[in-house]
Structures are given as structure tokens and as C-alpha cells.
Write a structure and sequence with these properties.
About 0% of the residues lie in helices and about 50% in strands. It is mostly beta strands. Strands 2, 4, 5, 6, 9, 10 and 11 form a 7-stranded mixed beta sheet that branches. A 4-stranded antiparallel beta sheet has the order 1-3-8-7, with no helix packed on it. β7 and β8 form a beta hairpin. It starts with a strand and ends with a strand.
């Protein structure tokens, strides 16, 4: 079983930056990917960014391309989401997640196959 602990949220002004962290523990040897997702009240869950464990390849949602960066630190078993040029519409609860080892299909945009989730952290962008 994987355990994920996400941290780093808070209140920031428009144009500011935050870095979210996802600490991974448990059986991590062959996990496929780690993703960041967000959900605002009344809106669908959105895939923000994902990184593939095998080669570090990445996916970004259209709304965050050029502003957010996902990266991994294998030595620390941690995945980061660096968020720059934040906008009020980025306000949401953010979750990191990982697929189950037997998931037949894994898709970042909709979170298909992601079964292990962090507790969620609030990010609020407001002046």
C-alpha cells in the first residue's frame, strides 16, 4: 500500500507562488505515476499535473501550462508542484494521488486509475 501526505498550501496573492509537496511512503518500488489534482466547489475534479515514475515524463493541464512545474526528488521520495503566476481561478483543494499497481488504465486528466490519495490541502489565491 502507498501512503501520500501532501503539504504546502495556504493563502497567496494573485501573481504569487507556492510549492506543494507530496511525500510518498509504503511500497513505492514500482508505482507508475504521481499526480496533482484539484477541485473547487461546484466544479469537476481537474488533473493539474502528473509525472511518470519510470522516466520522469510529465503531463500538464491546459490551464496551468507555462505556470506550474511538477518535479520529483527520488532520494527524498517526494514529488513537488511549483505554482507560479497564481490566479484567483487556481483556488481549490489540491490533492496528490497515485494509481493502484493493478490499474488497467491510467489517465492524468481525469484521474482514471488513481486510487491512493493524500488528505487534500487548501490553496487560496486572493488579494
Amino acid at each position: 500500500q502507498l501512503q501520500l501526505v501532501d503539504s504546502g498550501g495556504g493563502l497567496v496573492q494573485p501573481g504569487g507562488s507556492l510549492r506543494l509537496s507530496c511525500a510518498i511512503s509504503g511500497f513505492t518500488l514500482h508505482y507508475y505515476a504521481i499526480g496533482w489534482f484539484r477541485q473547487a466547489p461546484g466544479k469537476e475534479r481537474e488533473g493539474v499535473a502528473c509525472i511518470r515514475s519510470s522516466d520522469g515524463s510529465t503531463y500538464y493541464g491546459d490551464s496551468v501550462k507555462g505556470r506550474f512545474t511538477i518535479a520529483r526528488d527520488s532520494a527524498k521520495n517526494t514529488v513537488y508542484l511549483q505554482m507560479n503566476s497564481l490566479k484567483p481561478e487556481d483556488t481549490a483543494v489540491y490533492y496528490c494521488a497515485a494509481p493502484s499497481k493493478t490499474a488497467p488504465l491510467v489517465m492524468c486528466a481525469a484521474g482514471v486509475g488513481y486510487d491512493y490519495w493524500g488528505q487534500g490541502i487548501q490553496v487560496t489565491v486572493s488579494s
